[in-house]
Amino acid sequence: MPIISVSNLKKSYGELDVLKGISLDINKNDVVAIIGPSGSGKSTLLRSLIHLEEIDGGSIQINDEYLVEQGSYAKPQEIRQITSKMGMVFQHFDLFPHLTVSGNLEIAPKLAKKEPMDKIKARSEELLEKVGLTNWKNAYPANLSGGQKQRVAIARALMMEPEILLFDEPTSALDPELTGEVLEVMKNLAKEKMTMVVVTHEMGFALEVATKAIFMDNGEVVESGNAKALFEYPQFDRTKAFLKRSL
Ligand code: ADP
Ligand code: MG
């Protein structure tokens, strides 16, 4: 059974049809690379999965629960519960500038008030070690490099113990020499079998790490399947042209 199942998802901004009936299934432990030209609807799709955008039609199921069923949303409390299984990492990190690195990690679980502070602290220390930032726990975001900020953002997303991590171009805002350290953290998560959906222009990373690739163009899924097969033997002209420009 898929962990994410999307069927006939439609989304418009006014006259502009941004997602024109997207259907896809993602299985547990998949690392899915979503690729496609700028403006094809990749960010809108990811944001819809986590309910940062409201869709106009179609269905989204997370595990076996409907976030939206044929255009009608679950109740607010159910929506919160369903989306809490997912964490998201954004292109521009979106850290809280007035909080330290530790503070950024601890704020959401603190506000959720579901566990004692010592447990939250212990997990924050563990995750900072995992992303190689133990020595930076008392620093403020302004004093970090872009690569360090993005590693904080990943650790912060992991604090809520998500079953699925969504990444929207996590290295696009970074200087080229800083992308490696972020991709390394993501590769380790893939090794630990984290289910990940990654919008990316890093074709090398996608080829090396992704189990599945989805090519989007103009609000549609043009082609999807095994990542290596899609990169090596694209079936459609639009996919071929895009890969030719990107590889
Ligand atoms: P991608 O991430 O593939 O570059 P997006 O999902 O960001 O694509 O955008 C798809 C289309 O939707 C683009 O034409 C974009 O200009 C438009 N769009 C995105 N967000 C909004 C918004 N909030 N209001 C109006 N148009 C938007
Ligand atoms: Mg985008």
From TrEMBL:
<dbReference type="GO" id="GO:0005886">
    <property type="term" value="C:plasma membrane"/>
</dbReference>
<dbReference type="InterPro" id="IPR003439">
    <property type="entry name" value="ABC_transporter-like_ATP-bd"/>
</dbReference>
<keyword id="KW-0547">Nucleotide-binding</keyword>
<protein>
    <submittedName>
        <fullName>Amino acid ABC transporter ATP-binding protein</fullName>
    </submittedName>
</protein>
<keyword id="KW-0813">Transport</keyword>
<dbReference type="Pfam" id="PF00005">
    <property type="entry name" value="ABC_tran"/>
</dbReference>
<dbReference type="GO" id="GO:0016887">
    <property type="term" value="F:ATP hydrolysis activity"/>
</dbReference>
<keyword id="KW-0067">ATP-binding</keyword>
<dbReference type="InterPro" id="IPR027417">
    <property type="entry name" value="P-loop_NTPase"/>
</dbReference>
<keyword id="KW-0472">Membrane</keyword>
<comment type="similarity">
    <text>Belongs to the ABC transporter superfamily.</text>
</comment>
<dbReference type="InterPro" id="IPR050086">
    <property type="entry name" value="MetN_ABC_transporter-like"/>
</dbReference>
<dbReference type="InterPro" id="IPR003593">
    <property type="entry name" value="AAA+_ATPase"/>
</dbReference>
<dbReference type="GO" id="GO:0015424">
    <property type="term" value="F:ABC-type amino acid transporter activity"/>
</dbReference>
<dbReference type="InterPro" id="IPR030679">
    <property type="entry name" value="ABC_ATPase_HisP-typ"/>
</dbReference>
<dbReference type="GO" id="GO:0005524">
    <property type="term" value="F:ATP binding"/>
</dbReference>
<feature type="domain" description="ABC transporter">
    <location>
        <begin position="4"/>
        <end position="243"/>
    </location>
</feature>
<keyword id="KW-1003">Cell membrane</keyword>
<keyword id="KW-0029">Amino-acid transport</keyword>
<dbReference type="InterPro" id="IPR017871">
    <property type="entry name" value="ABC_transporter-like_CS"/>
</dbReference>
